[in-house]
Design a protein that fits this description.
117 residues, 0% helix
């Protein structure tokens, strides 16, 4: 059974930074493209970033490009999202996901990010 467990969320002031982690089990992590998506209250899911299986290619939504960095450690079966210059509009529940991320079973339970002064 695939399990994705996110951590690292919390309360941060505008302009601050956070590092999210996602530990994967139940799948051959190094074979999977992985993504981060987020959902703000009352909003639909929003794709944030994707990284290919060996970490050589990354893609970002325009709204986070230049501020967020996705990486992975295939030895530790862990996906990361470094977030900097955080804005109030970045506040959301953040999920890591295998592909396709739209499928509920491919997402973790999420970690909450709150950006507020």
């Amino acid at each position: 059974q695939v399990q994705l467990v996110e951590s690292g969320g919390g309360l941060v002031q505008p302009g601050g930074s956070l590092r999210l982690s996602c530990v994967a089990s139940g799948l051959t992590f190094s074979n999977h493209t992985m993504s981060w998506v987020r959902q703000a209250p009352g909003e639909q899911f929003e794709w944030v970033s994707t990284i290919n299986s060996d970490g050589s290619m990354t893609h970002y939504a325009d709204v986070v490009n230049g501020r967020f960095t996705v990486t992975r450690d295939n030895i530790k079966n862990t996906l990361y999202l470094e977030m900097s210059s955080l804005k109030p509009k970045d506040a959301a529940q953040y999920y890591c996901a295998s592909s396709p991320w739209i499928r509920r079973s491919n997402r973790g339970q999420g970690t909450q990010v709150t950006v507020s002064s």
